[in-house]
Amino acid sequence: MGLESDLFCSNLVRRFGNHLAVDHVSVDIPAGTFFSILGPSGCGKTTLLRLLAGFDRPDSGDIHIRGERMNRVPPNRRPVNMVFQHLALFPTMTVGENIGYGLKRQKVPAAQRRRRIAQVLEQVGLPGLEQRNPQQLSGGQRQRVALARCLVLKPTLLLLDEPLGALDLKLREQMKVELKHLQKAFGTTFVYITHDQSEAMMMSDRVAVMRNGRFDQVAPPEELYREPATPFVAGFVGDNNRISGDLVAIRDGLADIRRPDGSTVQGRVAGELELGQPVSLFVRPEALVLTGEALQTGFSGAQARVKTTLFDGANSRVEADSLGETIYARLPQDGSAPRMHEDGPIRLAWDPQLARVFAAEEG
Ligand SMILES: Nc1ncnc2c1ncn2[C@@H]1O[C@H](COP(=O)(O)OP(=O)(O)OP(=O)(O)O)[C@@H](O)[C@H]1O
């Protein structure tokens, strides 16, 4: 356990019948971290969060919060608060009463309550709104009141269960940035669960990618993006293309892969590989260069057919087909892309150092 550890879990297990919903999860989260748990539906995120909050008990393993073992501590005695997707502000109470509710239960005197409510409203950018009703606020403002209601209690950990899930797209984009700023301003450790990789990547200091009850990788967002530890992480975090084939050679850390038509492509070896085995090469859309014909020295390339172009300003892409595999490439808007028409041939090239090769997985 690190000295400044706010949350330390070792070998946490939660079973439902034969199913391991949380499968030997260990993690050490330093104080002040924005930590996200990212994974597809059903991977065990909510189950894990409920163990941390104390709503549920692990079958084995330990939970320590700031050095204290929590396994037998009931939820209301843990230094933890939780924000849910459906905010559940009390509709008949004012904003001030909503925020003061927990303080009142802790028997904080009225004058001190008023001061702390005013202070936290100021901190979340809603000064002076104590007397409003929650119905008189916008969705984003209600979200900030819900956060203020937790943060005013100064928890060691704030657990957030997909809190942006119910908001419309534009507000969600805005709240991502706000949440990140608020977390830094308060310095509270956030444990945030989501299935939305862009939320996790944009806000977090560290992200755990969860699958089937386990953490595949725990790393800062950039590292997940650049050095995925598993093919699942490579496919789940950020847009990625997958090209399949058999491994025919490894030289200087680069793998040669033979595709079904006999052509070969190259990428950097990213896992344990054996010659002859089926492998997947992952290469990101922005690493692909569209070329007319000649390849740059040292580049790898694949022949493809244009399916369609998808214009979206700076994020414009071309969708292509290469031996039945769909590949997306960034489409530069500076006039450097070759002319292309639907069903026309195109050559996709990349620096093999930017591609990652893993043993093929099912699915
Ligand atoms: N009380 C329970 N009894 C039996 N099985 C459960 C129970 N709670 C969860 N599960 C199972 O455990 C697995 C993990 O569920 P969990 O709700 O933690 O996933 P999740 O990652 O939060 O998914 P989502 O993003 O859809 O909320 C699922 O297969 C789920 O069906």
TrEMBL record:
Could you tell me the keywords of this UniProt record?
ATP-binding, Nucleotide-binding, Transport
**MF annotations from Gene Ontology:** ATP binding
PROSITE patterns named among the record's database cross-references: ABC_TRANSPORTER_1, ABC_TRANSPORTER_2
InterPro entries documented for this protein: AAA+_ATPase, ABC_SmlMolc_Importer, ABC_transporter-like_ATP-bd, ABC_transporter-like_CS, Mo/tungstate-bd_C_term_dom, P-loop_NTPase, Transp-assoc_OB_typ2
What are the ABC transporter domain coordinates in residue numbering? 7-237
Q: Which Pfam families match?
A: ABC_tran, TOBE_2
User: In its UniProt entry, what is this protein called?
Assistant: ABC transporter ATP-binding protein
